[in-house]
Amino acid sequence: PTPTPINLGVHVVPQQAAYVVERFGRFHKTLGAGFHFLVPIVDRVAYVHSLKEETISVPSQTAITKDNVSITIDGILYVRVTDPYKASYGIDDPHFAVAQLAQTTMRSELGKISLDRTFQERDALNALIVQSINAAAEPWGIQCMRYEIRDIVPPRAVRAAMELEAEAERRKRAAVLDSEGDRQAAVNAAEGTKTAMILRSEARRQERINMA
Distance (Å, rounded) from C-alpha 198 to C-alpha 52? Predict the structure, then answer.
């Protein structure tokens, strides 16, 4: 949490910041950017919030895909406080809460898809996590702007199998290209032979005409 300033009667709130003020222990008002007067002892700055977009690193975790493959995944959240009052009183630590929610949602969504689709549908997973977080975090006064999956790490044996599969696919494509090259060469050779035969036939015909 951001340290709160001591109330000396005068406060200058920086741009893109908000101070939540309590009077006799109860919410009194929210101060926006600018110059403000408060009553010493009676008023207290209870919470300080940055209204800038902030990044939260979501720790790596283990999740199991629909085809029962255990993978390690982590990501980054981009969030912004939209309501300082709710961010102060809606939950104890909104940033920690959205990080935990991101982890829970990611595990849930990964359990619905196979490992192959996990790599193919990163954007869709990111969008689902943002949607789920914002649905739950509205009472907390915080909004998730976007989520980015950083790393997806399958087990070593799965990585080896994927590398073998990729190598086999590369060899298959190379074999197809070689086959296409051989076929085209054979076609070109046949076309050349056909053209040569036509030319020889035309030459013999012209020779017979000339001799007649």
Answer: 80
DSSP annotation of 114: -
User: What confidence category does residue 3 fall into, taking pLDDT thresholds of 50, 70 and 90?
Assistant: confident
Report how many helices (DSSP H) and strands (DSSP E) the chain contains, helices first: 5, 8
Rg (CA), the chain: 34
* Separation of CA 71 from chain center: 16
For the sheet containing 70-81, what is the strand order? 54-64, 70-81, 142-153
Query: Where do we find the tokens 């939209």?
Result: 82
pLDDT, tens only, 102-151: 898 888 888 888 887 887 788 888 888 899 889 988 899 999 999 998 88
Q: Cβ of 144: how many Cβ atoms within 10 Å?
A: 22
